[in-house]
Amino acid sequence: MTTKTATRSGGRSARVQSAVHDAARELLEEVGRGALTVPMIAARAGVTPSTIYRRWGDLPALLSDVAAQRLRPESGPPDTGSFRADLLAWSEQFVEEMASEPGLALVRDVICGGYRIEGVAPCLVFTAGQITDMVERAVARGEPAPSVEYVVDRVAAPIVYRLLMGACADVDAAYARRLATQCLTDWRQT
What we know:
Helix content is 70%, strand content 0%. It is built from nine helices and no strands. α4 crosses α6 (101-113) and α5 (83-99) runs parallel beside α8 (148-164). The longest helix is centred in the N-terminal third of the chain and has 21 residues, at 11-31.
């Protein structure tokens, strides 16, 4: 079962979502994922388990939704004055966030839980949004820039793939800079 992606921004629905998300985050810290159950979350949130099952379907979908909210960037990508410098700074920041234990756990929750925004995993929505901001700034400055998809495929995707597959040893700021630099080099040659 897939989760609902659109909810009302106010009223009871928003209060229920907030209470359930808060309860899930608190209980994850207190008891850990292995001991966590929908009835525990429901009791803490002050709702019935059927409310959670009706809205999210199952525990992995709920945890995916909670993780997606935590993955949403709090600020825009760096604005250094050039696309190249923006991409280098952003890629380093992206690796730092994704390679952290909490970041990696959130990405796993989102992917495994199946939560989607208009059919796409929130990680990609948020990442593409940040890259779009950088590309649009470059274009506004009269600077050529690759497409968002090109940057996702050559910078973000290899980072996430390696992290999810457990090849974390060399996924660091230097790796991110190499990917960003190679992305720009390859793009200019196409």
